[in-house]
Amino acid sequence: MTIPEEHEQPGAGEARQDSAADEAREEAAATERLDRAVRAAEAALIEFEIAVETFRIEVENFSRLHEQRLGPLYARLEELEAEIAEAVAARTKDPEDERRAREARAMVAPMPQVSELFQGWLDGDGFSPEAAAMLTEQSVQPPTKVRPGEEARKLYRELVRRAHPDLVADPTERDRRGAFLVRVNQAYGRGDADELRALTAEWDNGVGPTPEPAGYGRREELYARLEWLANRKELLADAAAALEDSAIGAMLRMAPEDPDSLLEEVAAELRQKVTAKEAELAAVLADG
C-alpha cells in the first residue's frame, strides 16, 4: 500500500512569510512610536528642568541680594528698637521695661550662624557660591540682579538643551555633561553672558556635540525609560513646589515681571521705618 505524500497548499509558505513580515513591521512600527514618545518625554522633561532650575537660581539670587541690600536696614531697625527700649528702661527703672530692653538687645546680637563661624566660606547647605566658585577656579562675582538678562537666559537655555546628561546613555559622558552644566549654572546665576558665550564656544569646539539619541532595542527598555522620566518629573515637581512655597519664592511671586524692583520697594519702606525710629529715639532721649 502506498502512503500518499502530504502536499502543502500552493502559496501557504509565502503566506506564512508574509504574515511574519507583517508582524515584524508592526513590531518595528510600535517600537518606533514608543521611541518617539520617549524622545518627546525627554525633551519635555528637559524643558521642565530648565524652568525649575531657572526659578531656583532666581530664588537663590533674590535671597542673597535680599540679605545683601536689606540686611543692613533690618539690622539698623533692630539696633534702634534696642536703643529705644534701653532709653525707656533707663528713664522708668521699671522691671518690665528693663526686661523688654534686654530682649530687644538680645535680638541685635543673635547666635552666630554657620556662615559666620566659617567666615562666609560655608553655609548650612555646604560651600557658599563664592567659595565654590573659587574652588572651581570660577570668577568670584556675586549676582547683581535677581533675574539674569535676556541674552544670558537665551544662552543658558540653549546650552542646557544641547548638553543635558539625559540625552546620552553612556555613564562617562553623562558625568562629563553634568560637570559642564554645573559651570553653566554658575555662570547663569551670576548673569554672566560673556562666560556663557565662552562655554558655548567650548562646547562647540571640544566638549562634544550632541549625539544622536542611543538606539533602543527591546520595547521593555523604552517602557523602563518612560517610567524613569515620569519619576524624575515627579521629583522636579516636588522641588518646584518647595521653591514656590518658600518665603523667598512667595516674595518673588509678588513681582513676577520685575523682582529686582521689589527689593527697591522693600528697601524704601525700611528706610522710612528707620527714619521714624530715629525720630522716636530722639524724642525718648529728649524726654529723659
Key terms:
288 residues; mainly alpha; 2 strands
What this model shows, in words?
- There is one protein chain.
- This protein is mainly α.
- The chain has a two-stranded antiparallel sheet with strand order 1-2.
- The protein starts with 11 loop residues before the first helix and ends with a helix.
- The protein has helices at residues 12-92, 95-108, 114-117, 129-135, 150-163, 171-189, 193-207, 219-245, 247-254, 259-287, and strands at 122-123, 126-127.
- Helix content is 76%, strand content 1%.
- The chain is elongated.
- Helix 1 packs across helix 2 (95-108), helix 1 (12-92) runs parallel beside helix 10 and helix 5 (150-163) packs antiparallel against helix 6.
- This is J domain-containing protein.
- InterPro entries: J_dom_sf.
- It comes from Streptomyces carpaticus.
- Residues 1-32 are annotated as: Disordered.
